[in-house]
């Protein structure tokens, strides 16, 4: 059902089965559980629009629920960093607030943070990576943070309290981005 856990020794599927009703396209982990993103509306036995936190042992959806929606929404990438989960894809709102295509939510509560990269509607985010206070974003967009940035951007984020509340786009090369890899020392490569 679109998501599974495999036994490392045998390669066989385990009994863990959250049963997503649509494709799961992104996974991230934390001590709280498994974060799943995709084009599903139900997972782990509960309604969860496009992103959910699943129990490691129970395979049940936990209370964490950012509620991604708008347009034909799908979460394509998830990045767990510190006390935040970055969600990228093709969507318009998170928790009822406009955050097109890229948002940060609190790792524990699922509440939207003040981080706002201002990517126009309909311009998808496909890849995320972070090094220190730098977030690398790849996808099918032409601008980010009000600046022309073709398919890849480096966001300098400044930390204030528990939220990132300022993002400043810097120019990177224009290429098709499927994955962003950050090397030790903070250099980014694209794949």
Commentary on this structure:
Helices cover 0% and strands 46% of the residues. The protein has 191 residues and is mainly β. The strands form seven sheets. A four-stranded antiparallel sheet has the order 12-13-16-17, with no helix packed on it. A three-stranded antiparallel sheet has the order 1-2-5, with no helix packed on it. It has a three-stranded antiparallel sheet with strand order 6-9-10, with no helix packed on it. Strand 1 (24-30) and strand 2 form a beta hairpin. Residues 160-184 have low confidence and may be disordered.
Provide a quick synopsis of the model:
With 191 residues, the protein is mainly beta. The chain is built from no helices and 19 strands.
């Amino acid at each position: 059902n679109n998501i599974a856990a495999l036994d490392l020794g045998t390669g066989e599927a385990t009994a863990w089965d959250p049963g997503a009703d649509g494709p799961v396209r992104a996974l991230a982990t934390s001590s709280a559980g498994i974060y799943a993103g995709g084009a599903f509306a139900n997972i782990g036995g509960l309604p969860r629009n496009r992103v959910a936190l699943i129990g490691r042992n129970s395979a049940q959806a936990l209370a964490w629920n950012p509620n991604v929606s708008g347009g034909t929404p799908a979460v394509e990438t998830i990045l767990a960093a510190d006390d935040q989960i970055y969600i990228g894809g093709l969507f318009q709102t998170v928790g009822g607030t406009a955050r097109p295509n890229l948002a940060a939510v609190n790792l524990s509560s699922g509440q939207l943070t003040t981080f706002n990269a201002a990517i126009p509607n309909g311009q998808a985010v496909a890849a995320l990576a972070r090094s220190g206070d730098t977030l690398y974003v790849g996808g099918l967009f032409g601008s980010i943070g009000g600046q022309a940035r073709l398919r890849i951007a480096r966001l300098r984020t400044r930390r204030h309290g528990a939220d990132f509340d300022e993002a400043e786009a810097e120019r990177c090369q224009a290429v098709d981005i499927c994955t962003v890899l950050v090397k030790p020392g903070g250099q980014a490569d694209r794949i």
